[in-house]
Amino acid sequence: MKYLHKGSQSQERLDALLSFGKSTSEDIKAALSDYLVRGISKTNAATLNGVPGPNFTRALKRLEVVAGKFENALEIEWYSQRQNMKLELIKERIDALLIELNLLLANESFSDAEWETHNDRIVKRLDLEINHIGTSKRTTENEHVFLAEAYGEVLKILENKDEQVDEKFIDCIDVLEYWKSQTPI
């Protein structure tokens, strides 16, 4: 893949890339700067700085290899940061569900029908979220490992028709607290 194009680099980035590669003469550095930073054609950049064309091309190819390694390192770092951000969001989503369940449990005036309505609403929402995690192209591995698993366990509890809703909510809180403690951030 080609990373370096005419006029595509800042001088700071070019200096950083040059610092990772083999030592390069000042005339080749100037020619690379004219081409990559100022946007002058390859031929003119080499000629203006007294660099033979083949030497300029060879230096550009070496710098392209360095740029590829640099981009790969940035991509790995970006992926790691994205995963960490997703873990934070997973914890926030689990916290939101915990708060919701605790608030519902605090209200002792619900009728059985109202408890069932809240239970069914949460089941529908979790079903949608699990389906989204399973089908979204933007879903991360952590969402599959933690959120989908946690929500799946909660759904099993909530879908059990043999238990009282308030008892199911208490069991769900225990499951969510466990999964929250397992999230590595």
Structure characteristics:
185 residues; mainly alpha; 78% helix; rod-shaped
Overview in brief:
The protein has 185 residues and is mostly helical. The protein has helices spanning 11-20, 26-38, 42-48, 53-106, 112-135, 141-158, 165-182.
Provide structural commentary.
There is one protein chain. By secondary structure, this protein is mostly helical. The chain has seven helices and no strands. The longest helix has 54 residues, at 53-106. The protein is rod-shaped, with a radius of gyration of 28 Å. The chain starts with 10 loop residues before the first helix and ends with a helix. The model has no long low-confidence stretch (mean pLDDT 90).
The description of the largest β-sheet is: none
Q: What are the segments in which pLDDT stays under 50 over at least 5 consecutive residues?
A: none
Calculate the mean pLDDT score and round it: 90
Shape by Cα distribution: rod-shaped
Q: What class, by secondary structure content? A: mainly alpha
Strand content: under 5%
Tell me the total number of β-strands. 0
Order of helices and strands: HHHHHHH
Beginning-to-end CA distance, first to last residue: 35 Å
Annotation field: number of helices: 7
| Helix fraction by DSSP (H/I, runs of at least 4) | over 70%
Radius of gyration computed on alpha carbons: 28 Å
